[in-house]
Design brief:
alpha/beta, Rossmann fold, 7-stranded mixed sheet, disordered C terminus
């Protein structure tokens, strides 16, 4: 892995937490916040209409009876699907805001924390669970935000049962949204030699967002001990410039992106397909005949 892809290891986890405390992923799509049930339903509708590849990747419908850990629950849209499918679900999130929102949402759906599911605050790099507890670890768009993605993957391996499956999405550096932001933050500012990884690191979501190529991801998972590793890519709503323009872009940034949205060739982006997609989806398995941890990885008691 090159130098640019590892700079995020020094990112401030507290800054990441504060970013997501202000606006958990998905809340920007909520309608009519005073009507809480409608608010959450509108978030769910927006998520799967914008990202229809999530359900076939997650395979919620096959999770009945499985012990599933979701790392980074956001506003709870995917977490709710595990419960509807009959999974024994546990969720962990870095922020108190997400824990509160998801608890409220699930109560509206008739689920109770401690009875139907477990939900708690925590860090993906230090999971508060014993070894070999879960049949599946799932995480969509989260582990690239933590300060040490490799450590988070190691922790996922540790808490999986032998034969268990991990399904995660992390970001891919060579993508449409990185190119768009490179034009804005590098080319137009006279810094054309700035790398795309650096652009994502500095300008996509929380501070220090990391990216991985498919080869880098496979190497990372293989080094951890996973087998049967497969990868795939998909176009994000960012690649298609479908996201709302929040205040974080600043006035010049919003003007630039608003103008670009009017002429952006989404037809061409879709035609070229996911080869330049932000989303890198990874599935892998912990060997069924080897419940040991990766070499040098200490055990942890619950």
């Amino acid at each position: 892995m090159d130098k640019e892809s590892t700079k995020g290891s020094q990112a401030d986890l507290e800054a990441v937490r504060l970013f997501w405390e202000k606006e958990p992923c998905g809340t920007q799509h909520g309608e009519d916040p005073a009507n809480r049930k409608h608010y959450y339903d509108s978030i769910e509708k927006a998520r799967y209409s914008r990202e229809p590849f999530i359900p076939p990747f997650a395979e919620f419908d096959k999770a009945h009876g499985l012990k599933v850990l979701e790392v980074g629950v956001g506003v709870g849209t995917d977490f709710l699907q595990w419960l509807r499918a009959g999974a024994i679900a546990t969720g962990i999130d870095l922020t108190e805001t997400s824990v509160k929102l998801v608890s409220e949402r699930l109560e509206l759906e008739g689920f109770r924390n401690g009875k139907h599911y477990n939900l708690l605050r925590g860090n993906a790099e230090h999971l508060p669970f014993g070894d070999s507890e879960f049949d599946m670890v799932y995480s969509w768009g989260v582990m690239h935000h933590t300060t040490d993605t490799r450590k988070a993957v190691n922790e996922a391996f540790r808490v999986l049962k032998p034969g268990g499956t991990i399904k995660i999405m992390i970001y891919h550096p060579f993508c449409w949204i990185a190119i768009v932001l490179w034009i804005r933050h590098a080319l137009l500012k006279g810094r054309p030699f700035t790398g795309l990884r650096r652009i994502v690191f500095d300008h996509v979501e929380s501070p220090g967002t990391k990216t991985f190529t498919a080869r880098e991801a496979r190497d990372m998972f293989k080094a951890t001990g996973f087998t049967d590793i497969t990868t795939g890519r998909s176009l994000s709503t960012g690649d298609l410039l479908m996201n709302e323009l929040g205040p974080g872009h600043g006035k010049p940034g919003r003007l630039f992106l608003s103008a670009l949205m009017a002429i952006y060739p989404r037809w061409l982006v879709r035609l070229i397909g996911p080869s330049l997609g932000l989303n890198l989806m990874i599935k892998a398995r912990k060997p069924a005949d080897d419940g040991r941890l990766a070499p040098g990885k200490p055990t942890r008691s619950a």
